[in-house]
Write a structure and sequence with these properties.
Layout (H helix, E strand, L loop, with lengths): L1 H10 L8 E5 L4 H17 L2 E8 L5 H17 L3 E5 L2 H8 L3 H23 L15 E4 L4 H14 L2 H5 L5 E4 L2 E4 L7 H11 L15 H16 L3 H30 L1 E3 L2 E5 H6 L2 H16 L7 H9 L8 E4 L3 E6 L2 E6 L8 E5 H10 L2 E5 L6 E8 L13 E5 L6 E5 L6 E3 L6 E3 H7 L4 H4 L4 E4 L2 E5 L16 E9 L2 E2 L6
């Protein structure tokens, strides 16, 4: 195993002579084995190590005992060691996080702080760099093949997309910090055998058996069942993750090429030819548009495939259409140009087209999709479902409505009011002007311009929060239904009561 790991380290250039390596050590089998392995290699290969143990304040005496175990292990081998306590319970409560997520965030924060401190000081000043340049600090983590398989499955069920399916990266650079994972080439069985051969014991975290954690259920229930189907399931999942990483790298190269050759940047944003986008593979389309949205937003967090699709859907409509995305990103179709810029939504600025193709993909593929309407989180959640004829399927909620899909399947628009808007009130086709409807419903004049309307042409089939048009109601002849939930501030269909 040691030979395999060191070949893996060299393949990805994880450790170079003169490096300082900060080893995260919980005292469990994986991290203790990593600390032992790097300690054995450090003296002959001219790099230095330091152990960091983060005590999360979760498991009481058991947690303190683990910290003492790591401290004694390091003292015996004269390994520099820092034991740092944090309060994960309070952090989870204050930040409205799950306990597992809170502990993970605090653990990484501690490791990053220690790494940045070492970049300034060095672990052992008695080994100065001849060049005068401070040595690189690496943060070594003990993830192995089973961890990678768990991550792949976890990301798969979350719908995280191609990047999530790439699993855990062997090396990840974040600014001045570099994370390395030398054990990703090993199974947990190999690691435990390595410790056994060395005559070393290790700590066992009692929370690893808590089935309330998603990863624990994947580890203890799902992976063993997959291994019953094929005993090499974990190995195969790791190989697939590696192959997908290569695909992702290739896609990134192609994306950068398109951004350099086809995108024009201006003082207010960037634009690309819509006809060019339509000519390239959909996979590359999505990647390019995601990069442009992230570039204008100045961040990537919370940007999803739904936002990308909202921008791409503009290309199937008329010039002048636009959509507003998070972080004040505005995407506009202007003749053949798809323009990415920043801008607040105007008072009457909602104008989002939902194409027939988008709706048909919902019907064919199932599931739900979000369509963002503005910069403050306003969005629609749409689902297309077969209709059983049971009236109890029709939810009677203010911000969730159900429509006859065949009446809307060619698409619709989400916007604010315009001159000539009307509703159909009954089966005889009697119309009412929107202005008169607002008066009858006693909607204050100050609120009328900001009302959200779902329309086909000038016909309104839902005033969000109010009435739906007669022509779009579910009937005995309905075969498919379109369920739409509006979410926006206090007007939120996810939290309303029937």
């Amino acid at each position: 195993m040691k030979k395999k790991v060191w070949e893996y380290v060299k393949k990805f250039h994880m450790i170079e002579p003169g490096d300082d390596v900060l080893v995260a050590c919980s005292g469990g089998a994986d991290s203790l084995a990593l600390l032992l392995f790097l300690w054995e290699q450090s003296s002959c290969l001219d790099f230095r190590i330091k152990a960091v143990h983060v005590e999360h304040g979760i498991r009481g005496e058991e947690s303190l005992s683990d910290a003492e175990f790591v401290r004694r292990f390091c003292e015996k081998r004269r390994i520099p060691c820092a034991v740092i306590s944090v309060d994960a319970v309070s952090y989870a409560r204050d930040m409205h996080l799950g306990l597992e997520e809170a502990a993970r965030i605090l653990r990484y924060l501690v490791l990053e702080e220690e790494a940045l401190r070492l970049q300034g000081d060095g672990i052992q000043p008695e080994y100065p760099s001849d060049s005068g340049v401070k040595p690189t600090v690496k943060i070594a983590l003990a993830h192995h093949q089973e961890d990678n398989a768990e991550t792949l499955l976890f990301q798969l069920v979350r719908g995280s997309g191609l990047l999530g399916m790439c699993g855990i990266a062997p090396v990840r650079q974040e600014g001045n910090l570099c994370y390395i994972r030398p054990f990703l080439c090993c199974s947990r069985g190999e690691i435990e055998q390595y410790l056994s051969d060395a005559g070393e014991s290790f700590c066992v975290d009692s929370t690893n058996g808590d089935q309330g954690y998603s990863r624990n259920r994947i580890r203890s229930q799902i992976i063993p069942q997959l291994q019953e189907i094929n005993h090499r399931a974990v190995e195969h999942m790791n190989r697939t993750a590696s192959q997908l990483t290569e695909v992702w790298d290739y896609l990134n190269c192609e994306t950068r090429r398109v951004l350099e050759e086809q995108v024009t940047r201006t003082w207010e944003g960037a634009f690309v030819s819509a006809s060019y986008l339509q000519s390239i593979h959909p996979c590359l389309q999505h990647a390019v548009v995601m990069e442009l949205i992230a570039e204008v937003a100045g961040r990537r967090k919370d940007l999803t495939a739904t936002h990308v699709q909202s921008a791409l859907d503009l290309m199937s409509g008329q010039s002048g259409r636009r959509v507003f995305l998070p972080y004040q990103v505005k995407v506009t179709l202007e003749y053949d140009r798809l323009i990415f810029s920043r801008g607040e939504r105007e008072e009457n600025g909602i104008c989002v087209e939902i194409s027939g193709g988008f709706l048909e993909s919902l019907r064919e593929n199932g599931g739900s999709r979000e369509v963002w309407l503005g910069t403050k989180g306003e969005r629609l959640i749409l689902r297309v479902l077969p209709y059983s004829g049971m009236r109890e399927e029709i939810e009677k909620k203010t911000y969730t409505k159900t429509f006859d899909y065949d009446m809307i399947k060619f698409g619709f628009c989400v916007r604010n009011r315009r001159e000539g808007d009307y509703l159909i009130l009954d089966g005889y086709g009697h119309r009412k002007k929107l202005s008169n409807y607002f008066i009858d419903e006693k909607i204050p004049a100050s609120q009328r311009d900001s009302c959200v309307l779902l329309t086909r042409g000038s016909e309104i089939f839902w005033h969000v929060g109010g009435r739906i048009g007669e022509n779009y109601k579910v009937t005995d002849d309905t075969r498919w239904i379109l369920k739409i939930t509006y979410c926006g501030g206090e007007k939120n269909g996810l939290f309303e009561e029937t």
